[in-house]
Amino acid sequence: MSSRRGRITDEEINELISKLQALVPESSRRRSASRSSASKLLKETCGYIKSLHQEVEDLSDRLSELMSTLDETSPQAEIIRGLLR
């Protein structure tokens, strides 16, 4: 692949794949970052991002439930609001 403006080299792609592989828990166990596994890595990354989004939604729901049970002026509510800022 040419390194002309806007193009990325094979070496850069391999480096980016390695970096992505290190960020995704399921992929970090594998050592080889061959081009043939790039498709699988991208699928795993998408799945991991979806699971993180779901975890954020679940935690947000739990926090909303918790906040609804607290008195707005309670010390606990103040601490939680402080942590969220």
Task: Give an account of the 3D structure.
By secondary structure, this protein is an all-alpha fold. It has one domain (10-84). 71% of the residues lie in helices and 0% in strands. It is built from 4 helices and no strands. The longest helix has 32 residues, at 38-69. The chain is elongated, with a radius of gyration of 21 Å. The mean pLDDT is 83.
Secondary-structure element order, N to C: HHHH
Shape: elongated
Task: Tell me the number of helical segments per DSSP (H or I, 4 or more residues long).
Answer: 4
Report the portion of residues in β strands: under 5%
Average pLDDT rating? 83
Strand tally is 0
Q: Span between N and C termini? A: 47 Å
Low-pLDDT sequence parts: none
Largest sheet, strands/sense/barrel: none
Radius of gyration: 21 Å
Total domain count: 1
Q: Indicate the structural class.
A: mainly alpha
Query: Helicity, in percent?
Result: over 70%
Pfam families: bHLH_ILI
InterPro entries: bHLH_dom (IPR011598), HLH_DNA-bd_sf (IPR036638), PRE (IPR044293)
Keywords: Growth regulation, Transcription, Transcription regulation
Domain BHLH: 1-52
Question: Can you describe this structure in just a few lines?
Answer:
The protein has 85 residues and is mainly alpha-helical. The chain is built from 4 helices and no strands.
